[in-house]
Amino acid sequence: MSDWTRGRRRDANNSEVENRSCGPSRGSNCRKRGIDGSLRANREMDGSGGEKGEHADGSSKHSDKRQDGFTTPESTGPVSRCSRQADWGSQVDDDEMRSSVHRDMQRYRRRILGAEVTQRERKTSSGSSGSCDSKEEDHMETDEAVLLRRQKQINYGKNTLAYDRYIKEVPKHMRQSGVHPKTPNKFRKYSRRSWDQQIKLWKVKLHAWDPPTEGGQDNVLDNIEELGLGDVMDIELDFPNLPDSQNASTTHSISLDGEDCLGTPVKVQKTESTVEPEMA
Amino acid sequence: MENTADDYRIQSFDLDTQMLLKRALNDPSSVNLEKVSDIIVDQSLKDQVFSKEAGRICYTIVQAEAKQSNGIVFRRNVLNRLQQEFKKREETRGRSLQEWVCYVTFICNVFDYLKVNNMPMVALVHPVYDCLLRLAQADALMNEEEVDCLVVQLHRIGEQLEKVNGPRMDQLFFLLRDGFLLQKGLTSMARLLLLEVLEFRAGGWVLSGTAHKYYYSEIAD
Predict the structure, then answer these.
(1) What spans are recorded as compositionally biased (Polar residues) (chain A) (predicted)?
(2) Residues of chain A with C-beta less than 8 angstroms from the C-beta of B84
């Protein structure tokens, strides 16, 4: 158990390789870039193929199965040294993600500074206090490797048609915590297990916005229930007001516009099955 | 949309290709961006005028792709093609000076236009320096074509390059000073170009008014 936090890096690789190996088929039809996914595969073949394989050595288990561009979250983490030798395209992609994460970190720092100020004001004026985690900055995750790995997981989830549909259909101010998917906060300190679970739940919730297929989504809801919204509430500390779970069913059903159930449930089941080995 | 063919000097392409490029600019997800990037790189390598402009069209397609689908396919392809060409640059130079000059122009132009979060692409810094240092070697200084290319690139991206890696710029300018001072057989045009770029950097990447007059007016005072 404690290995989870101790040997984070090694574990990271292993567990995610496992995840991935279940993954490729799941929802690959929902990938935004799926249109030219085949193209990417081709491009991979010629030229850069050799080096690519070389540098991805450590994680080669999945790299050959996976379309590139969906390379797994861990590859910039532990393998980042090696990626220096990667092709220029990937180097620049990595740099971009790294600098974006750093930029986000500055933004987040500014934001929590602002939040602390208002909280202090509230405290003095009303006397009521959320003493829980006032010193946000102490709890901030600053390990670049961790942040990059998390960012990749987030990007992976966002790079879906479901996510596009979701942000279009539900404007930001309409989103309710506990009801709508909320991107996990990568700057919070979480155990590896908790983080991965959050990502998983988030993705499951996003599946409710999968584009209509022959398959239906009614089961998604049940599955969410099964996976336990309790966990999410546990985790989403940034929401002072408790999410009301009875709303969940109503909001979700909006997007379900009467599809029968074939396609998505399968995906969700797969998600679940990836949860199991990690729990054990 | 506001992107028109003439903005990007794509008239030299055949009509089908022009259509493809237009679509790439306006609706990148509807085309094979890998093919588009190959077309642009290939054209840059043989068309000197286009190689000076190609960074801009790349920039626009990269922006459009990112906006439309958050994609990076095009940028990856361009960069990886650039890398392939980089590996065989010496061979290219031996085969065709013009193609080599086009290559350097293109990579510098891409370096100039494509930024990552407003910063130069680190991956290109050393390759660009390698190219410029190659142009500063004795044998290259003998070719006005290469000297001209070197000087033009330094005017455009010299300052940025120095910011990201000062020591290599120093190294480059040692070569340029030596070339200017010591190398036998340089044409006076080559010396003029070298002198100007030496002054240009010495002035903090700006040419003083009088220097500008000296180099660019028909009649100096």
Answers:
(1) 69-78, 243-254
(2) 47-48
Contact present, A139 and A185 (Cβ < 8 Å):
no
Question: Could B70 and A159 be called an inter-chain contact, meaning their C-beta atoms sit closer than 8 Å?
Answer: yes
Q: Are A11 and A192 in contact (CB under 8 A)?
A: yes
Find how far residue A52's CA is from the centre of its chain. Answer: 25
pLDDT at A50 over 60: no
CB–CB contact B72 A93 (8 Å)? yes
Question: Residue A42: closest CA among chain B residues belongs to which residue?
Answer: B34
Interface confidence: ipTM more than 0.85: no
pTM: 0.64
Are A95 and B76 a contacting pair at CB < 8 A? no
Q: Quick one: pLDDT at residue B64?
A: 92
Q: Is the pLDDT of residue A134 over 90?
A: no
Secondary element (H or E) of residue A149: helix A144-158
Contacts of A39 in chain B (CB under 8 A): 32-34, 73
The shortest CB-CB distance from A89 to any of B79, B122, B127 is to: B79
Nearest CA to A178 out of A111, A130, A249, A226 is that of A249
B195-221 as b/e, with b when 16 or more CB fall inside 10 Å?
Answer: bbbbbbbeeeeebeeebeebeeeeeee
Mutation for A interface: B38, B41, B79, most A CBs within 10 A: B79
CA–CA separation, A190 and B180 (whole Å): 61
Q: Closest approach of chain A CAs to the CA of B177, in angstroms?
A: 32
Who among B32, B70, B75 is closest to A92 (CB)? B75
Segment A204-247, tens digit of pLDDT: 989 888 887 655 445 444 444 444 443 433 333 343 343 444 44
Name residue, tokens 């239906």.
Answer: A216
pLDDT of the residue at B141: 96
pLDDT score recorded for residue A16:
42
Furthest CA-CA distance within chain B: 58
Instruction: Name residue, tokens 């640059």.
Output: B89
- Of the candidates A32, A39, A95, which has its C-beta nearest B123's C-beta? A95
Residues A118-140, buried b or exposed e (16+ Cβ, 10 A)?
ebeeeeeeeeeeeeeeeebeeee
Q: A80 CB near a chain B CB, below 8 Å?
A: no
Six token digits for residue A24: 């490729």
